[in-house]
Automatic annotation (TrEMBL):
<dbReference type="GO" id="GO:0019748">
    <property type="term" value="P:secondary metabolic process"/>
</dbReference>
<protein>
    <submittedName>
        <fullName>Streptomycin 6-kinase</fullName>
        <ecNumber>2.7.1.72</ecNumber>
    </submittedName>
</protein>
<dbReference type="GO" id="GO:0050300">
    <property type="term" value="F:aminoglycoside 6-kinase activity"/>
</dbReference>
<dbReference type="InterPro" id="IPR006748">
    <property type="entry name" value="NH2Glyco/OHUrea_AB-resist_kin"/>
</dbReference>
<keyword id="KW-0808">Transferase</keyword>
<dbReference type="InterPro" id="IPR011009">
    <property type="entry name" value="Kinase-like_dom_sf"/>
</dbReference>
<keyword id="KW-0418">Kinase</keyword>
<dbReference type="Pfam" id="PF04655">
    <property type="entry name" value="APH_6_hur"/>
</dbReference>
Amino acid sequence: MARNVASLDGGREWLESLPCALRSLRDGWGLELGRPFEGGTCSWVGPARTADGGCAVLKVSFPHREARGEAEALRLWSGAGAIRLLRSNPDGFGLLLETCEPGSTLRDAAGEPEDLLTAGLEVLAQLWSERPDPASALEPLHAVTGDWAGLVAERWPRLRPGADPHLVRTAIGLLESLPRTAERSVVLHGDFNPGNVLSARRSPWLAIDPKPMVGDPGYDVWPLIMQLDSPMRLIEPGPVLRRRFGLAAEILGEPAERLSAWSAARAVESAFDRYNIGDRRAGDAELDQAAVLADAAGL
């Protein structure tokens, strides 16, 4: 169920219009809707039965930048590494999706971390195998990270002036330079954390909930590597992270140092986003993480 949307610009109005939007999609597509799933933040997501008796999932997203290209990306991937898009409404924020069952997350799966990491990386490789359409309307990565570089530069003296200047300046530079020096461009998932990789019947694992862009593949790896089992809790996380980035490089065909550099830059950006919402503790933890990732990248 959509949560926290009311605090966003236009969110309250969207929540008020949501029942009408659901009725319109239900009636227009001939659906029977079940109770929404728990855990959503910017969308209504729930089970649906189609007119021919099939099972599906209806997703109605709050219109925002990150969700704008979801339908286009799912259509391009056509089930290769991701759930299938069955249909979408004209604005792309109302989606009828393939049901993903049993639907347990990679984050909650039993197994050795590097085996689970391998499974996730293999899904990512599938997503990247589909070449982006030159006429795609998906947002270019450099436009997004360029905005982020400006936000970090603005927030640093205001919210965390004591942060390591070398680390912050390096991250700002990477957010601006990495997207423009990529050797290849792919359709990025954009939020490839292990909670967005679900067990399925037609494939061991499928990705859901993309926030797609087009650009340097190295952008996508950070949340998968860092969120599988919280490696920062280890006494010496550096060697473990270098081993994981080496595995990612082997499977994905991207330089380990570049994957680490992207991860360091994203951790700094995320830290300042945390500071911006008043979560000092989480921001400091992500800056600590960024320092370890920067060391792994030799920055």
